[in-house]
Amino acid sequence: MLVALPVVGVVDGWWLTAHFPLRTLRVQGDLQRVDRAQLRATVLPYAQRGFFAVDLGQVQRAVDRLPWVEQAQVRKHWPDVLELRISEYRPFARWGATRLLSAHGHLFPAGKVQVPAGLPLLDGPEARVPEVVALYNQAREQLANAGGVRGVAIDRRGSWSITLADGTQVVLGRDDPSSRLERFAALLPQLIAQNPQRRLLRADLRYTNGFALRWAVPEAAASPARAPTPLPNTGSRT
Question: ∠ CA(99), CA(103), CA(107), 5° rounding?
């Protein structure tokens, strides 16, 4: 019996595969970037084992590794159907040079698929994704009148910076970036109104009692150093 049982198992496996093959692959989901040909090629080796022998867990793990697949569910339906329910990544932002951030907060490689135009550029340590997204959402709301926000980043030293839609660089530093941004956003319309002929190139908000601003000037004009612009007296120190 000890010798015969493994042989019976092999014969039964062959018989079940031959007599109950999987003939239909059913894919559900709004797939715009997942390569369907690659999907079929990935599933085929597992599906060839037949209805009873196919390992659904192996199929799911293999599909999960495909580019742009955020989540996959695998089921089988009698007598010959293998069904895949696939959720595709919905890109929320670019992250650094090679990755994207999904609407659910997952980082994933962009691969060779064309990245949608107009995504903001976010960057920072992976562990700080929620903080970067939170500051971006705040900046997008508070700086909407300035044309919007192109990107938000935190470097390895913990220093925050924002890039506006027109390319203006806003340096927030490491301490309390949310409050610094709020104060700057409240004064930005006034600063722009006072300089209607010049574009703001850079704002350094790391000063205690003001901002250091650099404005665009004609090429023929000199570019003297600018002292920090004092904040209006609001009764509190920044």
Answer: 30
Q: Which amino acid is at 212?
A: A
CATH class of domain segment(s) 4-88: alpha beta
Where residue 176 falls (left for φ over 0; alpha for ψ -120 to 50; beta otherwise) is left
177-229 pLDDT, tens digit per residue, is: 999 999 999 999 998 888 888 899 999 999 888 889 999 985 555 545 555 55
Cross-strand pairs, 173: 160
Query: Phi and psi at residue 161, in whole multiples of 5°?
Result: -150, 155
pLDDT digits (tens, 9 = 90+) for 118-136: 999 999 999 999 999 999 9
Sorted by sequence, the CB contacts under 8 Å of residue 32 that are 6+ apart come out as 88
The domain made up of 120-230 is a member of CATH 3.40.50.720: no
Rounded to the nearest angstrom, the gap between the alpha carbon of residue 54 and the centroid of all alpha carbons in its chain is 34
The C-alpha atoms of residue 105 and residue 199 are separated, in whole angstroms, by 34
- pTM comes to 0.76
Compute the distance between CA of residue 219 and CA of residue 212 in angstroms, rounded to an integer: 21
Report the Cα–Cα distance between both ends of the chain, in Å, rounded: 84
Domain boundaries, the chain: 4-88, 120-230
